[in-house]
Structures are given as C-alpha cells and as structure tokens.
Amino acid sequence: MRKRLLFILPLLVLLAQLSYAQTRLVKGQVTSSDDNAGLPGVSVSVKGRTAGTQTDASGNFTLNVDNDATLVFSFIGFSSVEERVGNRSVINVKLQADVRNLNEVVVTGYGQQIKRELTGNIAKIRSSDIQDQPVTTFDQAIQGKAAGVQVNTGSGKLGQGIQVRVRGQSSVSASNQPLYVVDGTPVTTDNLSFNAAATNPLSDINPQDIESVEILKDASAGAIYGSRAANGVVLITTKKGRSGRTNVTFGIQAGSSTPTRKLQFLNTSQYVDFYRQAAANSDRIDGYASSDPDSYTSYMENFFQTQGLGTFGTPQQVSTNWGDLAYQAAPFQQYDMNINGGNDKTTFYLSGQLLDQKGILIGNALTRYSGRINLDHKISDRFRVGFNTGLTRTLNKRLSGDRQFDNPVQMVALPPMTPSTDPATGLPVGTPPGDISIPSYYNPIINLGNSIFNTTVYRNISNVYGQLGIVKGLTFRTEFGLDVLNQQEELYSNSKTQRNTGIPGGTGSNRYSRVENYTTNNFFNYSGTFGRHGIDGVLGMSYQQAERKTNLAEGQDFPSDAYRQIISAARKTNASSTQSNYSFLSYFVRANYKFADRYLLGLSARVDGSSRFGQDSRYGFFPAVSAGWVLTEEDFLKNTRGISFLKLRASYGRTGNAEIDNFPQLGLFTGDAGYAGLPGQRPTQLANPNLKWETTDQADIGLDFGFLNNRLNGEIDYYNKQTTGLLLNVNVPGTTGFSTQFRNVGSLENKGFEFVLNTENTTGAFRWTTSLNASTNRNRVKNLQGQIIEGGLNAMSRAVEGQPLGVFFTPEYAGVDPANGNALWYKNVTNSDGSVDRATTNVYNQAQRVVVGSPLPKWTGGITNTFSYKGFSLSIFFNGVFGNKINFYGVGRFSSANGRFEDNQTVNQLAAWTAQNTNTDVPEARLFFNNGAQPSSRFILDGSFVRLRNATLAYNLPKTLINRAKLNTVRVFVTGLNLLTFTKYAGWDPEVNADDIVSNIAQGYDFYTAPQARTITGGINIGF
Questions:
Q1: How many whole angstroms separate alpha carbon 613 and alpha carbon 28?
Q2: pLDDT of 682 higher than 60
Q3: pTM of the full predicted structure?
Q4: In whole angstroms, what is the distance from residue 405 CA to residue 442 CA?
Q5: In the predicted model, what is the mean pLDDT of residues 573-583?
Q6: CB contact set of 545 (below 8 Å; sequence gap of 6+)
Q7: Which one of 147, 667, 819, 944 is most buried, counting C-beta atoms within 10 A?
Q8: pLDDT tens string 624-648
Q9: Cα dihedral sign for 436, 440, 441, 446?
C-alpha cells in the first residue's frame, strides 16, 4: 500500500504541473466607455464554466484561465463583452451603456426599481445625454429626449423661464410646471423676477453634476408625491463617488453663438417708396391732394426729413440695418473639474464649474460659478451617512420684457434712414444732448453703459442623510434637505435713457428676495424574496416648509450719472417688504409585488396636508394601483424566436396640484387704508374654508417590447388624464362685498399616445444605434360652469368649454378683395336655422370671433442617431413640434400690417395689393388705416418645426498614446446646438413664448421675441 502511494503521489504532482502549464494568470481593467472610469463589481466569467470573479473598486481583476478560454464581462446597464484569452496576459475591456438592457436601475420616489419590473411610466435621461452641451440649464438639454415631455425655451435670452409640460396642460390657473426634486429635496422653481419676464431657477444647477434625470409621467409613478404630481415629477440625481483610485477629470469648452434666424426688413429706398405709396393711397381715400399740408403725403415727407432723410444723407448714403444691430458677438466658455474616488468605507465626489456666456442680444450675459461636494461614509455594516451640497453664484445681465421699447429686437421697427450714431455727438442717435425724439422710437443701443438690469443669485441646495440596516432587507433612512435662494435684482437707468423711462434725472430700483425651503423625509424601505415571490415597499412621512421674504426700494433723480445707489437719489419714491410661507405634511406608502418574475403589482398612496387650503379640506388622499404581466415568461412565448421581451402594464391613480399662491383660502386684509395720517386696513379677499386641491385622475395602459435579442425595443402607451376641481377665481354676487372668490370649479382632460423605439442597427467595431420617441396629446376644457376666461394680446386667447386651453379666438381673415385691395373677413354669423354665414365682408366689426387655432401642439417627437467606430463617435439629434399655431399679431400689427404705423415693414409687405398686383393676400398699404391690421387669423401662423437640435463629434484618444502621459482618458469634441431649423413660420423662431405675455391661457405669442441661439463649441476632457 505504501509503495502504491509513493507511486501515485508523484504522478498527481506531475499532472498538476501539466495542468498549471496549460493555464495562465490574466489581469486587466474594465472601464466605462462614457468616462473611462473603472467599473467596480463587473462579473468576469469563463464562458461555459462556473469559474469567475468580479472587478475591484477600481475596475481591476485577476483570474487563472486556460489559454483557449473565452472571458465574458457583464454588468447591469452595459452591453456584455466577450474576449478570447489566447496568449494574452493583460486584457483591458471597455463596456458601453446598453440601451437594450432591461436590468437598468431607475430612480423612483423614495427608492429604486429595475426597469424590467416597472409597472408605471418613467422616462430616464442619462448623464451622457446631457453632458458637454452648451446650455445654461439642464431642462434645455432634455428637449425632445422623452416621449410626452414638451420643453419650450421660449426665447433666446439667457436665463429666461423655460416651459416644461408633462403630458399636456392640466390647469387653467395653477402652475403647469412639474415638481422638481434634487437628491430627495423638492426645490424652489417659482419665478422671483422683478418684472413679468420670468427667470429660471433651474439655471442654478450645474448640468455636469447630474447623474440621471427620471421623469415620472403616470399616476402610479407620481402618486407617491401626491398633491404636487399632477404635472409630473422630475427626479434629479447628482453624481456620487466610486471606491477605488481617485479620478480627476478636467474639461474645457469654448465657442460662440449666433441667431438661428433674422428677418429681412425694408432698406431706406424700399421704405421710402413703400410709405409714399401708402400715404398716397390714404390721400385717395380721404380726398386729400398730395400737396395739401394736411395730407398723408405731406406728413410722411416731413417724417422722412425728421428721421434723417436729407439731413444725415440720401437714401443711398444711409440705410441702417437696425435688426443686425440688436445682436452682438456671443462667446461661450466653460471650465469643469471633478474629482471622485474613495474606498470601501468612504466615497466622495467634488466638482466645480465656471460658465461665462454672452447672449446673442446686446447687453445680455450670464456667468455662473458652482461647486458641489457629495460624500458617503459607511460607519458600520449597518449604518451609513452622507451629505450632498451644491453652491452656486449666478449673475444674469438681463434685458427688459419683449413688449418694452428698449427690447433690442424692437430696433427692427426703426426707420432705416436714421443712422445708429448721431454725427454731431458721436453718441447713439437719440442720446441727450442730441434730439431725443429721433429715431421715431427709443433706441435700445443707448442702454449700453447707461442702464443695468442685473440679477444675482446665491443658491445652496443640500441634503444630509443617515441610513440604518435594521434586519436583512429592512432599512430606515432619514433625510434633511434645504434649498436657500438669495436673489438681488438691481435696475438702474441714468439720465441718457430719459426717453425710455420718462425720468430725466435717472431712476434706480433694488429688490431682494430670500427663499428658505426645508424638507425632511423619514421612511422605511424593505426588499425581500420568498421562493418565487418578491416584495419591496416603502413607508414614511415628509414635511416641507418654505418661507419667502422680499424687500424693495426705489429712487429717482440722481445728482449725476456717476451715482447709481438709491441712497444718492433725491427722491425715494417707493419702498415695501413682504413675507409669505407655506408648509406640507405628508404620509406615504408603496408596495411592489412580483410572482415568478412574470406577474407584477404595485400599490401606493399618499396623504397630504397643506397650509394653502381651507381648514375643512386641508388633507387629501392620493392613491394609485398598477399591474404588469411579463408575457415572455409564459410558456407560450418563452422560447418564441425573435421575441425577447414583452410586458403588458396598466395603471390608475390620483394626483393633485397645489401650486398656487399662498393663502387663497383665507379672508385677507391689507393695511394700506390709512387716512389723514392715521393707519387703516381694508378687506381684500373673501375666505373659502372648503378650498382644496385640483385633482387629476389618470389611467395608463402600456406595452414594453423587445425583439431580436432586444436589439429592437421600446414602449407604447395610451393615457387619459381627467382633472377636476380646477382652482379658479370666479365671479361672486356683489352683495358679498367682493367681485371674485377662489373656488374649485370646472374640469379639463388630456389624452394621448406615446411611442418609444430604440434600435441597435449594427454591432461590432462600427456601432450604430437609434433612439426615437413620438407623442400626441389632445387637451380639452370640459367644464368652466359657463365662464369664458380671456387673456393675451387683445384678449385673443381663451379658456372656453369644448376647446383646448388657450385657443386663439378672433375674426377669420378671408384675404384681399382683388377689386380694391380691401382686407376681407368671414362673417361667421350663425343663422336662425343653425347654419353659419361664410360670406365675406370688408367691415371688420361684422365678422364674428371664432376659434382659429390652438397654441398646443398635436404631436411632438425626437430622434437620435449615434455612430461609433473605434475612438470616434457621432451623435445627431433632431426634434420636432407639429400642429400648433403662433400668434404673430404683436409684431404683425406694427411691422407686417401695410403701413398702419411708421414702423419699418417686413419685406413681404412689398407684395401689397396694387392695381397691377391684384392676386395677393396682402391688403393695400394705407398709412394710418386699419386695412387688415386688426386682430384676426391673418396673424395666426403655423408654428410646426423640425430642428437639428444637437450634433456632437467626439474622439477618445487611444490608451496606448495617453498612457505615456500618465493620463486615463482624453476626449476631444465639437458640438453644435440648434444648427438647422425647418419651418414655414414667418417670424424669427417657431419656438417662441413672449416673456411678458405668457400665461396658462396666453401661449404661443411672438412680440419681437429673440430667436434661439445657434451655438458651436469645441472642447476637451482630460482624465487622470
């Protein structure tokens, strides 16, 4: 026996040595293709065997394998990669984010879920979708990226309010903006602007710090936010540190902006000819001889002279293109740095950014300094803590509202024979001591150096948390968040701007606003599996309190233009202070159940109490239920070739809208009724103790699909949103002593379809992917108890039963009478038999007002194609808006209305009717006559467009090259924003909302509104 063992033992050793000789030690690093950062926890397995390992905190791995082995690298959210070992001992792998991966983690309210198990509708936008885009706010970067989410930038001014709509407009008087939550903290998004032109508080958030944006669209996803989720919820998650080596990334990008479009106006020769003809036509109608001193012709010739013709030069000598002078060179530069890393206990993320951008309009600029620290620390296996804090200083050099005469775009209306500079003084024409009555309107160039409108914001958005593991699967988390916003607005106009202000000695205003917004969340999370059953849930409470204070001081008449502070003003003309607050107390619960990975059920509910509502209706209940069925887990589809994934889901739930001003439920008094030096107060608001939330009930049915190993995947959804109890100021009997009262009155609905399709067209060295989304929405006001609410210019917009919110309601233009050049309108009078009289008339008041279009689009969409080959990548993104109308009347009645006023005209007015040109839709030009200049459908134009929103070409330098410089990654790129626009719209830009007109009802107005900027930048990101 002993001899036998002595024989076998050497044989075993020899076999072991032979076996060892056929294996080798392989090591390497797995990184992300997005930022080349090491990926921890990647599964590295040997194909066909059970052997394997995982990458460490830096993405490194080591593994003993056979020479002929094939390694499989897989990680949630990334495409798997296979590598044959061969004779290699070092294998470095770069994983690409997988658009097909159904195991991607999606952030939900107070938790997370795997996308495969979602029963609600949540759109996710990744950091790679918004990185390095030359925009000041992240909401600009998500335009067209999510089905059912419409983003309208509205204007080319920097830092202006941006309109975001999730599945349509759900309110007539309350806000239609979604709720924004940053790392668990609902943040302030109220407009704090001094004037009617809204600013955008989201411009205080650095887009480069964002890890992901989740948009909760249906009730099952949003109901856990209860009374504030009717307009959708946008969850913003900032970047976290990763354990492993410390990574430093530095980025620079620079470029410039130009207007996407300029309109062409008449030059001096055209202007003089046009207005001489318009004056002659008016003389003919009123029976004046052109030589009569009181004739229109005499008036116009005198106007020509006073505005420069024959004084400053001949028509051939002076022809000022005022439109071009509204714009400036608009450089853009941005510097970013972030540091992230840590170990098994502590991870950190630090970032800083400097953004400096000039707007395309003269005098407009925005500068932002921001910094962020996100820290997570594991105190023990059961307890971890962390905090996130972001600090920002933003300086926005703003402009007046679109309807103000010193809006630079309004310069297009100035007569072209007027020079921009007064030859006698060398100053902008119209500057004292020159003749301030020239040009015919105020010259906005005077504002440069003589007027300021600066808004400075200091913002702190922070969150601190502690999380305790109680037992396996059960944790308790407590969070405290704050959002402190300090905003100072300084307005000053010196004596040289007196024609615009009407104050020869200069005027100044200083307004300070402070918002302190505190939130605490305390909740339990549980997740566990029991055989084929899986359950996860959350139970908790939330409390939010916000307080806003404002102070205002104004003064006039300064001793000289060297003084700008109000203390130097001779007259202190105004001073005020206000204080307002609100609070929410909420309790919430959610449970998700799955059986056998095929049957899914979700339940959620929230109880909200708000200080904004009546004592008899302070609390509301907002439940939701959803279900899903993964058909591809069933035997009849499980092995079906070509079908990779199929899930049917449905949901129904209730959400609310509480975004109104504070104290609408109370009977209010104002202490401004002093008399004869004695104090006094007066009642200003009628109480309503029954006032409560607007309520939106929403049903959603959807299908998630994947074909050909999920190379083709997407979603199809239908939703129906019914909003009741609209918050409206309604008329009440005069016997109450008041004219109106805030009540819950009326209802409206939104219905629509959403479609998402992602395809992986090619794989391998050359990769091509496509992401497409499209959505429709039909909005209709169902009940206002017979009320008609009007808004916009000349009350051309309406909220009226049976129509979409904000429809344009005005006489219908019928063209031009070819016999005499008169403008015509359809009568649209309802006859006694119910028929409509469609006869035309040249008497404007005989035409009835009718619905002539809606500012709300019928459908929207976006498509992104991404190509990559070796280190190169190219992304091309188009988005479009279709079926909406734009009201051009604000511009048209002055600059496109046949010489109604002396404003310069758009060149298309040269097609006005004459005896030789009778086949035209432009009425005869008549000075000071309303021949087609009245509000009508003539100025309601098609606003549909398709825009090449973004194109980015990038190159990642090879590792073999950058490793010599001890760098981890080097990425160079060039990107373009708003490169091309395809539209029939006659104005500057179809993506428009005049900033001091816009409201829930007044949508889609153009009033000399600045076009979007076309921005091209180049940059480099270096990681080490």
A1: 61
A2: yes
A3: 0.89
A4: 6
A5: 94
A6: 517, 518, 581, 582, 583, 584
A7: 147
A8: 999 999 999 998 888 788 899 999 9
A9: negative
Pairing status of strand 507-530 against strand 474-493: antiparallel
d(CA 392, CA 136): 13
3-state secondary structure 887-936: ECHHHHHHHCCCCCCCCCCEHHHHHCCECCECCCCCCCCCCCCCCCCCCC
Single out the residue of 774, 723, 777 nearest to residue 751, CA to CA.
777
- Residue 678: the pLDDT is 85
Given a contact cutoff of 8 angstroms between Cβ atoms, the answer to whether 632 and 646 are in contact is: yes
Per-residue H/E/C for 18-35: HHHHCEEEEEEEEEECCC
Q: Which is more confidently placed, 194 or 169?
A: 169
Strand ranges (DSSP E) for 205-309? 210-216, 233-238, 244-259
CA pair distance 430, 680, nearest whole angstrom: 46
pLDDT score of 51: 67
Question: Quick one: CA dihedral 298, 300, 301, 306, positive or negative?
Answer: positive
Are the beta carbons of 844 and 827 closer than 8 angstroms? Answer: no
- Using DSSP's 3-state secondary structure scheme, residue 172 falls into coil
pLDDT at 119 over 90: yes
Asked, as a colleague might, if the bond just before 504 is cis with ω within 30 of 0, I would say: no
Q: What's 300's DSSP letter?
A: H
DSSP code, position 324: H
**The tokens 């009326």 sit on which residue?**
746
The candidate with the shortest Cα–Cα distance to 236, out of 515, 481, 458, 487, is: 481
- Distance, in Å, from the CA atom of 610 to the CA atom of 620, rounded to the nearest integer, reads 9
What is the phi-psi region of residue 738: left when phi exceeds 0, alpha when psi lies from -120 to 50, beta otherwise? beta
Neighbour tally for 832: CB within 10 Å: 5
Amino acid at 637: L
Q: What share of the chain is helix, strand, coil (3-state, %, to 5)?
A: 15, 50, 40
Structure confidence by residue, pLDDT tens digits, 976-989:
999 999 999 999 99
Which DSSP category does 985 fall into? -
Widest CA span in the chain: 139
Mean pLDDT score across all residues of the chain: 91
| Chain segment 179-198, per-residue pLDDT in tens | 999 999 999 998 888 876 88
Smallest CA-to-CA distance from 444 within 497, 503, 381 is with 497
Q: How far is CA 119 from CA 106, 650, 747, 840, in A?
A: 12, 7, 27, 55
Contact 928, 900 (CB under 8 A): yes
**What number is the average pLDDT over the span 8-35?**
60
> What order do you get walking across the sheet with 233-238 strand by strand?
122-126, 210-216, 233-238, 179-182, 185-186
The token pair that represents 191 in the structure block: 């407009």
In this structure, what is the dihedral angle of CA atoms 923, 928, 929, 932, given to the nearest 10 degrees? 40
Residue 825 has pLDDT above 90, yes or no: yes
Q: Which distant-in-sequence residues (6+ apart) come within 8 Å of 17 by Cβ?
A: none
Q: Are 121 and 221 in contact (CB under 8 A)?
A: yes
439 prior amide bond cis, ω within 30? yes
Residues with Cβ within 8 Å of 426's Cβ and at least 6 positions away in sequence, in order, are none
Per-residue confidence band for 96, with pLDDT thresholds at 50, 70 and 90: confident
HSE, side-chain direction, 13 A CA sphere, residue 374: 19
C-alpha span between 472 and 528 (Å, rounded): 8
**Residue 47 clears pLDDT 50, i.e. is over it:** yes
User: Which is nearest to 370 in space by CA: 387, 357, 352?
Assistant: 352
How many residues are recorded in the chain? Answer: 1024
Calculated CA dihedral for residues 783, 784, 787, 792, nearest 10 degrees: -100
> CB within 8 A of 915, min separation 6: which ones?
none
DSSP symbols for 845-886: GGSPPEEEE-SS-SEEEEEEEEEEETTEEEEEEEEEEES-EE
Q: Could you tell me the pLDDT band of residue 7, with boundaries at 50, 70 and 90?
A: very low
